[in-house]
Write a structure and sequence with these properties.
The chain has 167 residues and is mostly helical. It has one domain. The protein has helices at residues 31-36, 40-55, 68-73, 79-90, 100-116, 121-124, 137-153. It is globular and about 40 Å long. The protein starts with 30 loop residues before the first helix and ends in a 14-residue tail after the last helix.
Length: 167
């Protein structure tokens, strides 16, 4: 399914590959886009708006509640971000300092797509064959990040979490 968005597609990377990297190359681009199978122009829009959404958050949080590596890596973490990390960890999607930025992007991008894309969560959480993501490995982790993102960043959409069919 294509999400109609009229933003330019990011140019191909200088190494010649596709504009969206594999998970192993996550520092070069948005992981959630690859995991959710979005087309290039939808991916560019989702990524840009997720980053804008992250930039406006600020709030005091008790760092003692967070895993030590997260607290050390992001001492200015917002309350929403901390809730996201704690919820994702409870669901088994372990967030580390190394994965924090990409995982936050996954959560905020999910919310942006629900708020602005005119779609349901079941339409986002699909693989390349447009089937609902499975309940093991990276697919389960992605679904757990989506659910945690909804609870932390856009709680008005929590009724859609059941569409993920989490175990």
């Amino acid at each position: 399914m294509e999400i109609p968005v009229s933003l330019p597609v990011t140019a191909r990377r200088s190494r010649g590959g596709p504009p969206w990297p594999s998970t192993a190359q996550h520092r070069d681009g948005p992981v959630v886009v690859r995991r959710l199978g979005f087309s290039g122009f939808a991916a560019a829009a989702l990524t840009a708006l997720a980053l804008v959404g992250l930039s406006g958050c600020s709030s005091a949080v008790n760092l003692h509640d967070l895993p030590p590596d997260i607290a050390a890596a992001k001492p200015d973490i917002t309350a929403e971000q901390a809730d996201f990390v704690l919820d994702a960890n409870r669901q088994g999607a372990s967030i580390t300092a190394a994965s924090l930025d990409d995982d936050l992007e996954s959560g905020t991008t999910t919310c942006w797509a629900l708020k602005n894309g005119g779609i349901q969560l079941r339409q986002l959480a699909v693989d390349d064959q447009n089937r609902l993501l499975g309940n093991s490995g990276d697919a389960l982790r992605t679904k757990a990040l989506m659910a945690a993102g909804i609870r932390a960043f856009c709680p008005d959409y929590t009724d859609q979490i059941a569409q993920l069919k989490l175990p």
